[in-house]
Amino acid sequence: MNEQLTNKEIPYTDNGDGTISDPVHKLMWAKEDTWLEKGRLMTWHECQEFVQEKNSQKFAGYNNWRFPTATEARTLFDPESSNSDVEGCEIHLDPIFSSGCGFSTWTSETRGAKAAMGFDLRSDYEFWLAKENSGFPSALRLVRNIVRVAEEGEEERFVNNGDGTVTDREEGVMWKADDSYIDLDKWVSWEEAKTWVHVLNNNRFAGHQDWRMPTRKEVQSIYDPSSPITDKYGDVVFLVKAFPAGSAQTCWTKTMHRTDRTLAIRFQMYNGDYKWHKMGLRSHGVRAIRDIKK
0.70 cut: is pTM over it? Predict the structure, then answer.
């Protein structure tokens, strides 16, 4: 699981344009949430329209504002920080953010078409709620990634090669564009994931025989919270734009536990977290990778 710093260790910066920067997590937050801007409770769908509105206005000069993931929303919570919500009650949000806001925020994480996750800043609490619910949670706090802007003429990092593969020029690796769930239309265990990769090599997929399972860090490199797409079931996952929609929510890795050889890491494409799971559990996908020979 990703280690979380407390707010006291995060050197927030007020940019003076209605935004707050978090250089540790490379995030920029709106200083005010929808409650402060709209003065009312908002459904998840209304918040989607709010995001579109702010992006069309290029709020603070940017058009890539979005919902936070649950992991990102959790970075805002610090039990040592004290702020106040719209009802004057205490929330654990750094006072650099405007007071009088909502006590919670919608997140991008969804369950099917009807439910979405919210995060409560009063007690570090996640919950599922109907997207149409207008009474709870109370607001949305916009976020965007702080990213380096490519200079004119600079090559893109990720390139879809048009043959079912995606090249990461920065890391010097090639990915299979589709994962096992798109190919097989079913979940696989860790051993079945290895077999699927073995079949790719036997068939010389895209002309190569050195496909393998990725490490946890390699999968994490293609997780992009600024790029929401839909998975096999229509839920939101975050994957760099060079990859197609329709994949699994999770990806097996070849990263195995040092002492318990029945466990391997599963990376979660819907929130950027990773966990140890039993290798015999058939509820994951895998995405093949190979090293580019120089």
Answer: no
